[in-house]
Amino acid sequence: MKISVSLLSSYLYCSRKLFLEKVLLLEEPPKESLVLGSIRHETYDKINKTEEGIVTSITKLMPLGNIETIYRQKYLQILRKNIADNKKRLEDVSLNMLDAYKKSFPSIAEESMTRASNIFSFIEKNKVFGKELWEKLTPKILSEIRIESEELRLKGIIDQIHVYNDEYVPFELKTGRTPSDGVWPSHRIQIAAYSLLLQEHFKKPIKEGFVVYLDTKQKRHIAINPYMKEEVKQIVDEVIVLLESRELPDFCNNENKCRKCGLKQTCYNEGEVNNLLNVRVSG
Ligand code: SF4
C-alpha cells in the first residue's frame, strides 16, 4: 500500500479530520482559500513550463526593466487565463473574477520580478543568451513532479524541484497562515517525505528543502537530517493503521483549527458520526 504524502500532513493537522474524509468519506465544502490556493498552484505550474521559452527568447543584453516586463506580461496572462478557467469554482465560493485577480496578483507579480532579476544577474555574470543561457542556467525549476516508492510506501507530487547541477532541492508552495518562525510541523514532514523520495529516485543525498508561504512571500528553510527518515516511517505506519481502523480519533483540541474546519458540524454531531460509522465501517 502506498499513501499520498499529503495524507501525512493531513494526519498531523487533525487525525480525526483525516478519518472523517478518508474512512467515513465526508467531503469538505469548497472554501475561498482552497480555490484561490489551487488557482495559484496551477499558475505556478504553467509559469514553470513557460520558463524555457522565456529564457531562450532573451537573445541579447537588455535592461532589467525589459526582462521584468517580459516576465510580468507572461505571468499575468497565465493568471488571467487560470482565473477565467476557474470561473465556476470561484462562483461556488461567491468570489468574482476581478476580486480573485486582485487577491492573486501580488504574489504572481512578485514572482515575475524575482525571476527576471535572477536571469538579469545570471546574464551579467555569464554573458550568455538564448539556448546557451537556458542550458547553463541554474537553478532550473521543475514543477509538479510525480514520484513514488514501494519501499517508503509513499507517493506524491512535488510542487517544485530546484535543480543545481546535480543537487535537488524540493519546494512546497503553501497558502494560508505563515508561522512566526520556521514552518508548520505538517509542512516539515511533507518536505522530509519528498526529500526521501527524491533521494531514493536520484540516488543523491538531499540536504535541504523550502516551504514558500505565498500569502506573506516568506521562504522558510528546512535542513534535512538522517533522523527524519524514521520520523516519516513512523507517521506512515500510523496513517496506514488509521485508514484501516474502525475507531474515530479524538478531537484535535485546537479551537482555531475547528473554527475553520468545513467538517465541524458533522464532527461535533455524535449521532451523525455514529450513523456514518455504522454505515461505512461496521456495515
Ligand atoms: S472540527 Fe476540529 S476536531 Fe473536528 S475534524 Fe475539524 S479540525 Fe478536526
Structural class: alpha/beta
How many domain modules? Answer: 2
Q: Please indicate the percent range of residues in DSSP E strands (runs of 2 or more).
A: 15-25%
Question: Uncertain spans, ≥5 residues at pLDDT below 50?
Answer: none
CA-CA gap between termini: 23 Å
Overall CATH class of the largest domain: Alpha Beta
The tally of beta strands, per DSSP, is 6
CATH topology (level 3) name of the largest domain: Lambda Exonuclease, Chain A
How does this model look, in words?
It is built from 12 helices and 6 strands. The protein is of the alpha/beta class and 283 residues long. Helix 1 (5-13) packs across helix 2 (15-22), helix 3 (32-56) crosses helix 4 (64-85) and helix 8 crosses helix 9 (227-243). The mean pLDDT is 93. Bound molecules: iron/sulfur cluster. Residues 14, 16-17, 20, 251-252, 257-258, 261, 263-264, 267 line the site of iron/sulfur cluster (SF4).
